[in-house]
Model the fold of this input.
Amino acid sequence: MEETPITLKGTADGILLKPRSYVWATVLEALERALKEAEAFFRGSRLIMELDNRELTQDQLTSLRALLMQYDIELWAVLSENETTVRLVRSNGVLTRLPKDSEAKKSPVDVLPAEQQALFLQQTLRSGQSIHYAGNVTLIGDVNPGAEIVAGGNIIVWGTLRGVAHAGAFGDEETAICALDLQPSQIRIAGYIGRPPDTRRGSAEPEIARIEGGQIVAEVWGRRG
Amino acid sequence: MAGKIITISSGKGGVGKTTATANLGLSLAMLGKRVTCIDADIGLRNLDVMLGLENRIVYDIINFIEGRCRFRQALVRDKRFPELFMMAAAQTRGKNSITVEDMTRVAREAAEISDYVLIDSPAGIEHGFRYAVAPADLVLIVTNPEVTAVRDADRVIGLLEAEELAPAQLILNRFKPELVRRNEMLDPDTVIDLLAIDLIGIVPEDSMVFVAGNQGRPVALDEHSRAGKAFRNIGRRLTGEDVPFEALRKQTFIQRLFGSR
Done:
């Protein structure tokens, strides 16, 4: 095969999967390889599959969902122009169109590799909401308790980070998490997990968290050596 | 002109949704408004008891939806205010007996004959919550100054925002100033800062609320109750009146509330 069997891309709406190969088993194998490689990133996210005019069968759809379930990924939408496929997908309770305002419709910046792209958001991220993105994430607003950001790159929160943030979810240990007020329930960088001390210091100051000497260390911005 | 449809919701149970609905219904009626309160908590009917109207129910919301009675027949008139009506939930049925379309139809019909329609939402974020908020022009989120209640309120606000439903305003219920002073309870600033929506009222903890609820005579009717006064003030704010917030705590908090106006 000349081409890769699938392309996989992080968008603000979820992971966008485009099968290239027409051999379904090959598509599934390639997808499983990709999921295994970055399990932490994909876990708990949702997937959008964009198809060409091919006809999807119930067996194919079922096998895809079974695979995704192993990684705790929701099959959120299947985009297709094939009417039989659309009917089948709908009867399985999966979206066939993305809600209005959805980010995935805007074409992602294809020229940059995924990990160098950035997602910019201006909102309060509330309990139960989560952002999974392959590149860097910048949020103007607060991340409330119960909300999470999982990024392949760095995470910058211009606000208070009270929820969960995971930077370097593909394993990049050079990434950082910054917030104007860093009081997360938990932060993760690559494979490391950090929890803030139980007693809070006084006033809020901007902080940056990184891996140093085998653990996550948070420092007040501007006070470095 | 059709009246305003306001849903009272919270996510978490037991924070005072039904108490708020009953008291706001009475508060608005006391201002001379035509009000219809709808109990949307199908299967766990409570609002009628709180309003002291339990023994007057003939038909309930499900009877109307299933075409067993006319709209007016399903309304119970309040014994104190002739312009206040209540539609009871069915006790023997479940939430799946109602669709989003059903509730929207009921709420719109009520709005035709009312200035305000108050919908008492079930707890949770499932189907019951969804049909209760669907017809709303405004959602009042009731929360307590407790971490779990605030977390659930945040989740509900997130759902309303994501689905571009009605705007939300906050009622902070069962607030205890002594506990905040001793640092044993979340203070209002922290809650408002976290939830980032407009505050429409703070209701202090008041043991009379329980007595009143049990007797079917909500505190809004009681001249001397602090909680009653807080609910009456929220009622006045809903009508567009600019009512200053009660001094529940130190002056700085009150100043901060008004600093932004």
Notes: Chain A touches chain B through twelve residues (CB under 8 Å). Helices of chain A lie at 24-37, 39-42, 58-70, 83-91. The first helix of chain A runs from residue 24 to 37. Chain A is about 20% helix and 35% strand.
